[in-house]
Every structure is written in structure tokens, then in C-alpha cells.
UniProtKB/TrEMBL annotation:
KW Kinase (keyword) present: yes
Keyword field: Kinase, Transferase
GO molecular function term, any single one: kinase activity
Lineage of origin: Bacteria, Bacillati, Bacillota, Bacilli, Bacillales
Protein name per Swiss-Prot or TrEMBL: Kinase
Superkingdom field: Bacteria
Length: 203
């Protein structure tokens, strides 16, 4: 039985970093990222307002499920990161049941004030795709430092999203929760042991 690992939880918890760390330890897993797909679509099509951005984001989610299904048809091992919530659960649950996949959710949680500081720092970095911050974007646009600062998510809105969208309640299959308030305290080896056990049980 093939396996799907979903890395969920609040924004700013380091889901992408953890995905890459797991893939380095277990190269059998194929990476599938909603944000990567969004960024590709933003660059390919661009958007002139929030409505156009929302249409592209919906297309990106549809593209994500399509790619996931192709992986499942090929019986690939898949790892995917996103702030999953109830909005995605039914579709994901259908796919893993239809293709007889074993699924593990790694849910990342942390102090929300710590996460806001991390999220803000990330949004101000040049490597952060402008499409995450803007309501109008076309390929090649570069944000100045001031423009980035003006478009960073406000503290109250960040906290509201975290408290109301259910990022801390999502799970599918076997649940492994990690508190990442302090990255220095994370026991990656314990997590890798659990993943290894899950893989061995399903071979």
C-alpha cells in the first residue's frame, strides 16, 4: 500500500522546510505543493485584481488534486504541505480511499505570536513570491521593501485566520502533532522513526 504524508498546521510553522527534510531522509516520496502550483499559475497568467487572483487560486487547487490523482494512479509515495482545513478534507479523503492509500498527517502547531513574527519575516524576504502579498501581479514584478511592508498581513487578521479556519484541527489518517514554537526543541529523529514504521508496516 502506498503512502501519503500531509504536513498541515498554522502558517509560519515551517511546513515546506519539514517536507524537504523528510524527502531527504525518505527519497521515495514525491513532493506536491499547492504553493508551488499557485506561483507557477501566477507567473503564467498573472492577475489584475483580487477576483482574478481568486479564480487562479481555485484553478491551482484543481490542478493540485489532478496532480495528486496522477501520482496515486502511479502508486507513488507522496508528501504534501499546506495549511489544510475542513475545506480540503472531503476531497482528500475520497482520493485516499478510492486509491487505497495509507495517509499520515503531521500537524504543526506553535504559539501564534511566534508564528506571526515568522510569517512577517518571511513575507519581507526577497525570495517570497510577490503573488502571496499582492492583489495585482504579473511575471517579473519585483516588490520594493516599502511595498512589501505595506502588504504584509496585519497581526489581528493573522490571529483571526489561525483561530477560525481550523488549521489546528485538521487530520486525516494517523495523526502526529508537533509543537514548533522553538525549532531547537524539535525531535526530528522521533518523527523519522514513526514514518519509517508506517512505511514498513504497509510494504
Amino acid at each position: 500500500m502506498s503512502q501519503l504524508i500531509l504536513i498541515g498546521g498554522y502558517p509560519g510553522t515551517g511546513k515546506t522546510y519539514l517536507s524537504k527534510k523528510i524527502q531527504q531522509r525518505f527519497p521515495v516520496f514525491q513532493m506536491l505543493s499547492v504553493d508551488d502550483i499557485k506561483e507557477e499559475n501566477w507567473d503564467s497568467f498573472g492577475f489584475n485584481n483580487l477576483k482574478e487572483k481568486e479564480i487562479l487560486n481555485k484553478k491551482s487547487i484543481d490542478d493540485y488534486y489532478e496532480k495528486m490523482e496522477k501520482h496515486f494512479q502511479q502508486k507513488d509515495y507522496v508528501i504534501s504541505d499546506y495549511p489544510f482545513s475542513a475545506k480540503q478534507k472531503d476531497r482528500l479523503e475520497y482520493l485516499v480511499q478510492h486509491y487505497n492509500y495509507q495517509v499520515m498527517t503531521i500537524r504543526l502547531v506553535a504559539d501564534l505570536d511566534v508564528l506571526y513574527a515568522r510569517q512577517k519575516k518571511r513575507d519581507l524576504e526577497d525570495s517570497r513570491h510577490p503573488g502571496h502579498l499582492l492583489t495585482a501581479y504579473h511575471r517579473g514584478e519585483v516588490l520594493s521593501e516599502d511595498l512589501r511592508k505595506n502588504n504584509v498581513l496585519e497581526y489581528n487578521e493573522f490571529i483571526e485566520r489561525c483561530k477560525t479556519r481550523g488549521y489546528d484541527r485538521f487530520s486525516l489518517g494517523y495523526l502526529y502533532e508537533m509543537n514548533v514554537s522553538d525549532f531547537a526543541d524539535i525531535d526530528y529523529e522521533a518523527l523519522f522513526s514513526v514514518i519509517s514504521e508506517c512505511i514498513q508496516k504497509r510494504k
